[in-house]
Amino acid sequence: MSRSTGAVAGPAATVTVRVPAKVNVQLGVGGLRTDGFHDLANVFFAVALGDEVRAEAGAPGSGIVLTCEGPDAALVPLDATNLAARAAQLLADRHGLAPDVRLHIAKDIPVAGGMAGGSADGAAALVACDALWGLGTPMADLLALAAELGSDVPFALLGGVALGRGRGELLTPLEVSGSFHWVFATADGGLSTPAVFRECDRLREEAGTGSSDTDVPTPDPSAVLLAALADGDPVALAGALGNDLQAAALSLRPALAACLAAGTEAGALGALVSGSGPTCAFLAKDEQGAQAVAAALIASGTCRTARATVGPVPGAAVVDR
Ligand SMILES: C[C@@](CO)(OP(=O)(O)O)[C@H](O)COP(=O)(O)OP(=O)(O)OC[C@H]1O[C@@H](n2ccc(N)nc2=O)[C@H](O)[C@@H]1O
Ligand SMILES: Nc1ncnc2c1ncn2[C@@H]1O[C@H](COP(=O)(O)OP(=O)(O)O)[C@@H](O)[C@H]1O
């Protein structure tokens, strides 16, 4: 892969990067591997709802200083565990640099919502620091660093629509025609990704199918779903949406069923839990349909809020420097 990240030669004083959230239009989950991960057939879809990460040069010796604004800012850790801080540290370490940088996250992606907001900020920080420090790191190297940070981070660099194999980090871009209109209904309180994978394993054990990677076949992408994306056909895509973590998310958060039902009753073509949840995603016929579903969901009282958006959109990219 040789796509540039938008970085130009020479360091900059301030760099702002925009990065998308994702919905998984298919999330096929294989068995539990011995390393604690699950093999996936993960069809990522980047949407216009996103965060911005601004990187500014810090004084020598100041280290990584993190700030965050937005409705969920209080839920975002501002220490070294933040994925944006981890990304800056990783990139600096690889280049033998001191990570003296102020990172400001303008957060619009729901926290712990199954939309990969932390991963998005990690990807954005990689691109922002790369430009700030004038490194010009090739995309292939950024993708490898991203995979060290987390399974969802490489996709936030790539954007568009892509199939993630392995634990989700091995990406193949997918062909898509036109745009698809989505509604995202956020919930009060997040769900922990490891807890949802554990619940998926528990439900499989309870059903008697076994949960290890020797019991569960490695999932494959749905041919119908790939054709619907390539054809730009929202009705066909709605019929092919699938999430193997949905039963686990619903088991941990039964109230999500009412939200899914409310969006479907309001005319959504399809409804599913986004990734590990608890955000619910609804596919609409067009922009007007998405606005109507969002309004009905808000009126239903089954979610914290609901927002219409569109995709696919590109991955993390410099918007200002
Ligand atoms: C479920 C998905 C679907 O895209 O996204 P979210 O809903 O969290 O946004 C991802 O697989 C989340 O990826 P990400 O959030 O990057 O997870 P990681 O940091 O790599 O892993 C956190 C933990 O999740 C579990 N995990 C993650 C990925 C995977 N393929 N199998 C797993 O079992 C493991 O318990 C792991 O320790
Ligand atoms: N930049 C960040 N933004 C949000 N959460 C972060 C960030 N960095 C680390 N985290 C941690 O990651 C957890 C998962 O958050 P997030 O990535 O938003 O959700 P999900 O994994 O469901 O997509 C949060 O609860 C938080 O503790």
From TrEMBL:
It comes from the Bacteria. It catalyses: 4-CDP-2-C-methyl-D-erythritol + ATP = 4-CDP-2-C-methyl-D-erythritol 2-phosphate + ADP + H(+). One of its GO terms (molecular function) is kinase activity. ATP binds at residues 110-120. InterPro entries: GHMP_kinase_C_dom, GHMP_kinase_C_sf, GHMP_kinase_N_dom, IspE, Ribosomal_Su5_D2-typ_SF, Ribsml_uS5_D2-typ_fold_subgr. Residues 82-160 form the GHMP kinase N-terminal domain. Keywords: ATP-binding, Isoprene biosynthesis, Kinase, Nucleotide-binding, Transferase. This is 4-diphosphocytidyl-2-C-methyl-D-erythritol kinase. The gene is ispE.
